[in-house]
């Protein structure tokens, strides 16, 4: 299609990513836009494009020739304090870091840590169950990742909880688009990452059992050790990415189950179905939206001309409800045949390395809660996050302890 026939003469303001949202409103807007404006433009945050259809999102994830993650990996751009591998690098530069990280999420490693994760989930759930409910986000989901992180990273619980507290402040600053607070909290997270690294330099652990020690000993393709600044960036990246998503996602599952008692009973009585339920929940309540790429050259997508160097949000939350891929996309369908096609963890070279750990955390949280309590209803209004996450900030539920 000739460039002069494309709608590139004006950058329209097709949607407002800052609009207040309810539990359903964002997906209602995305549904309409997939039909009327699947390649959208917003004037917020200095302007960006948004891809809302599954096929366009997947193509951008896989096409390294035309789209790069090295300029910014999220919309809005929030990486002000340094490059953080592997998420900020394209292959082959990111490969040395993924080669170190991937073995720590292998099945044997996950099997080893799973009992501890289940114990943590059970212990953290006990007070809110005994109290008859409360805000599951405040009482459980924002605490759970900190304790799991302590085990995974081999750090003291008090340090992990400090990281979780700063991560929460970081996420809150993102929520309110307070760039100064984002920068300030990011620098604190760097200091905590530096503390972990210095501890491993002074007292190395087995690099097969400790990811920081493995990064310090790793070498790149040329045989050189990984640069200190980039090891720091990698640890800084890891101590945040696993902290935020569970906190906004688990509340969505709880809210859905509160309104679907038959499903809740079925999952409680047939726990073998829970892994499939987790996948459908990941599709339905995808916690990240706005992961980004930048066009390497002028590209045409869906009749829109995206210029070189313009940022593009890949809206996973919309792609995972694309009617062309997932029939009846707003419904929870436990036996959905193509469920593993969802892009909640991305796709291609930057697919989330930590997704095995995330799945274990989510399964443990759901199973341990259903084993101990019934989610009998909502106890107040749900409050939703804003970009770049989608999920619950507040999710008050009523819980009935099971005998």
Characteristic terms for this protein:
14 helices, globular, 3-stranded antiparallel β-sheet, disordered N terminus, alpha+beta, 403 residues, Cytochrome p450
How is this structure best described in words?
The chain is of the alpha+beta class. The chain has a single domain, classed as Cytochrome P450 (Cytochrome p450, Orthogonal Bundle), CATH 1.10.630. It has 14 helices and 12 strands. The longest helix has 31 residues, at 228-258. The protein is globular and about 60 Å long. The N and C termini lie far apart (66 Å).
- Radius of gyration using CA atoms only: 21 Å
Structural category: alpha+beta
Q: Which fold name is given in CATH as the topology?
A: Cytochrome p450
Taken in chain order, the helices and strands follow as HEEHEHHEHHHHHHHHEEEEHHEEEE
At the first level of CATH, the class is Mainly Alpha
Number of DSSP strand runs: 12
Terminal-residue CA separation: 66 Å
Instruction: Give the spatial strand order of the biggest sheet.
Output: 1-2-8-5-3
Q: What is the count of structural domains?
A: 1
Helix proportion = 40-55%
Q: In the CATH hierarchy, what is the architecture at level 2?
A: Orthogonal Bundle
Strand count, sense and barrel status of the largest sheet are:
5 strands, mixed
